[in-house]
Amino acid sequence: MKTDTRDTRRPGTILRRQANTPQPPHVLLREIAGASPLAPSRYNELVSRWTASPLLKLLRNSRRTDRDRSAGAFALLCAGAILGTSPLPAQTPPGSFEDLAARAMAHVDGQPAEAVPLFRKALALRPSWAQGWFYMAGDLYALRRYAEGRDTFRKGLELEPRNGPAYGFLGLCEYALGDFYQALADIDKGEALGIGSDVEFEMLVRQRAALILIRAQAFDEALTQLGPLAKRGVNSPDVTEALGLCALALARQPETLSAREHAVADLAGKALYANIARRSADAEDAFHELVAMYADDPGVHYAYGVYLMELDQLAALAEFEKELKGNPTHWSSVLVIAFLRIRNGEPEEAIQLAQKAMRLQPARSRWIGHTAVGHAYLSMGQPDKAIPELEIAVRQQPDDSSLHFYLQKAYSQAGRKEDAQREKAEFVRLKAHEDPLSMTGLAGMAREAATGPAR
Q1: What pLDDT shows up at residue 109?
Q2: Which residue has the higher pLDDT, 344 or 439?
Q3: With contact defined as beta carbons under 8 Å apart, do 383 and 396 qualify?
């Protein structure tokens, strides 16, 4: 399995950012003054964090109310009593939990091989230490001991199940072990919870998720992983190549590509990246270069055709037809032609094309074919035939707001008012929660260009 050099750089740093959420001052004071002995480094850290507390600002800010200032003064008096009368704690006994945890933390990221046995000993004394499980798992990941890292992340998540970065790392471990669909499920959980602000980590997680989806020929979903990076101007060679595989609708993994195929995917990725980032001149130049240099390679005419959809649909149609001449099983091209046939008033032919595409598609992507058939029947004024197709699409892709919009339209045409109202409400709900940086995917972009976006 290909391993990115970023895989092993600094998992502890990423996990520490998740752990270092501000603690209330009274919690810090309680630990400082607690009965358990503290290592000097921990004592100094807690005092530093307390003195940076917003409570100190209550006394310094003249605009605060008297009540606020009184609360701040009381907190300072308490702290003075605690800090003024408590000497630095004695050095913790060797082999104690505090000693082992401090020594293990000192080795996080920098010396993972030394950190892991120390974490094991500390966790044997305090197995409820969730962050210890996460840090040890991160070090195991850095050492490429992925099976142990997976199991250790799972133990930590049993104790702290809302840790998004930990789910991200768990997915990376599972990816490295070849458990792709479990990896995707755990990455999805991490993204839902938030995988943190580390850009390199986000790129790696999104790129791995995209490769799993590309493997499953779910190119639309893969692009939803990668598109937000391009919109924010975030990129890497691995992200560019994965974008290229999406652009070409090519279900291959990077490690299986020949030198020429790498070059095609890289150029296609650069072209698509520029287009998503709204760098129009760069996108145009890159797509022209792609067609000029690699016109006979699989997916190239399809990628160029999708690019042309917003500019010249007749020219785009010609590109899709060229793709099918050299690559007759390229189901993404078949589907986009089906949507264009609907736009051109040829719904019967569109239905035949969509049904052909569904015979070529993997099950995960057939919702797009059912959507095309549903659109065709709607354009023919046959909502009763459109509804079953769109219902299948919604069941397979329940979070796509546009599908609920079109199903609502079909219910309305069929006179099913309650069902129409339900779908409209779901459309509004999903639309309100959509990530403004999300992407509809290449087939989705083609569908909107051919039939109009859901408003």
Answers
A1: 78
A2: 344
A3: no
Which of 24-38, 256-270, 379-393 is the least confident region?
24-38
Distance in angstroms (rounded) separating the CA atoms of residues 93 and 89 = 11
Instruction: Kindly state whether residue 379 falls inside one of the protein's structural domains.
Output: yes
Residue 409: both structure tokens together? 């339209």
User: What length is written for the chain?
Assistant: 455
Q: What is the DSSP string of 84-149?
A: HH-PPPPPPPTTSHHHHHHHHHHHTTT-HHHHHHHHHHHHHH-TT-HHHHHHHHHHHHHTT-HHHH
Are residue 133 and residue 65 in the same domain, yes or no?
no
Is the residue at 275 inside a domain? no
Which residues form the domain of 402?
329-451
Identity (one letter) of the amino acid at 355? Q
**Same-domain pairing of 42 and 160:** no
DSSP symbols for 283-311: HHHHHHHHHHHHTTSTTHHHHHHHHHTTT
Do residues 105 and 224 both lie within one domain? Answer: yes
**Where among 85, 113, 132 does a domain terminate?**
85
The DSSP 8-state label assigned to residue 387 in this structure reads: H
Identify whether the C-beta of residue 309 lies closer than 8 Å to the C-beta of residue 446.
yes
What distance in Å separates the CA atoms of residue 198 and residue 203, rounded to the nearest whole number? 9
The phi, psi pair for 127, rounded to 5°, reads -70, -10
Domain annotation covers residue 431: yes
Torsional sign, CA 13, 19, 25, 26: negative
Residue 90 lies in a domain: no
